[in-house]
Specification:
It is a single chain. The protein has two domains: 248 residues, Spore Coat Polysaccharide Biosynthesis Protein SpsA, Chain A (Alpha-Beta Complex); 39 residues, no CATH class. Helix content is 34%, strand content 25%. Strands 5-4-1-6-11-8-12-10-9 form a nine-stranded mixed sheet. A two-stranded antiparallel sheet has the order 2-3. The protein has a two-stranded antiparallel ribbon with strand order 7-13. The longest helix is centred in the last third of the chain and has 14 residues. It is globular and about 55 Å long. It is an enzyme of class 2 (transferase).
């Protein structure tokens, strides 16, 4: 059985929820304190043992390539000033090979993954979406890779969401469970309100066998008129078992404004440099607004 060594990070979306900020800046480059969102995703892949990453980009995404490129002038400046710890942070992504391919048309997540088919070849691979940041003792992608190594089958990361939010996600219809692993009968993309078969939602982390490309190559459109990865996963599930895994860790939704703000506050409160001053500021704002903390 081949090891999971490659990962796809789709980053071709237009980021319309964050306009006008994303008119000229990729949403994946929006900073959470002092690091762009996509850096958290790349670092999770590295920590999970991934050796090669392909980032699927679109028009106006050149800043992503520039960010992960070497900047020798900057590095020399940091060395001269003795800022070696900051230099290590800047060069974190150099521990993995990063490649790029352009999704020429915005046809959906399934199409973005399909664009990377030649890079993946006949190997199993991970997919990490940039709208979800997961903090966990064991990296989320590593948890899924461990499950793949046990089962030899595709594994989809899931977590529980409130029933009223199930229409926003791909949802699984579980048959049985053993520990945190589910056998699944159906994967449903964004079911209509009140029709979801469960409240276990697909959360932007996947380990897939290369056979998924057979179904993505059909280019069939689904919800929203786009080529949906969830639909291809369901077809794959009909020919070979696809598991769901309720991964451990705290998931942050940075794909919407309020989730992005909450993530920024949480990350800032973990930053030793600014957390005390921020904490005092938040307490001051609570008092000014006369908010009762429950």
């Amino acid at each position: 059985m081949k090891k999971v060594k490659k990962a796809i990070i789709p980053a071709a979306g237009l980021g319309t929820r964050f306009l006008p900020a994303t008119k000229a800046m990729p949403k994946e480059m929006l900073p959470i304190v002092d690091r762009p969102t996509i850096e958290y995703i790349v670092e999770e892949a590295i920590a999970s043992g991934i050796e090669d990453i392909i980032i699927v980009t679109g028009k106006g995404k050149r800043a992503i390539e520039d960010h992960f490129d070497r900047n020798f002038e900057l590095e020399a400046n940091l060395i001269e000033k003795g800022k070696l710890e900051l230099l290590e942070k800047v060069n974190q992504s150099s521990k993995v090979e990063i490649h790029y391919i352009r999704q020429k048309e915005p046809k959906g997540l399934g199409h973005a993954v399909w664009c990377a088919r030649n890079f993946i070849g006949d190997e199993p691979f991970a997919v990490l979406l940039g709208d979800d940041i997961v903090q966990a003792q064991t990296p989320c992608t590593k948890q899924l890779i461990d499950q793949y190594n046990e089962t030899g089958s595709s594994v989809i990361g899931v977590q529980t969401v409130p029933n009223e939010e199930t229409h926003r996600y791909g949802i699984i219809d579980p048959i049985s469970t053993e520990g945190r692993t589910y056998v699944v009968s159906n994967f449903v993309e964004k079911p209509n309100q009140g029709t979801a078969p469960s409240n276990l939602a697909i959360m932007g982390r996947y380990v897939l066998t290369p056979e998924i490309f057979e179904f993505l190559s059909l280019q069939e459109t689904g919800a929203g008129g786009e080529i949906q990865l969830t639909d291809a996963i369901q077809k794959l599930n009909e020919s070979q078992k696809v598991y769901a895994y309720d991964f451990e860790g705290k998931r942050y939704d940075v794909g919407e404004k309020i989730g992005f703000v909450k993530t920024t506050i949480d990350m800032a409160l973990e930053n030793e440099e600014i957390r005390d001053e921020l904490y005092e500021y938040l307490l001051k704002k609570v008092n000014e607004l006369n908010i009762t903390i429950k």
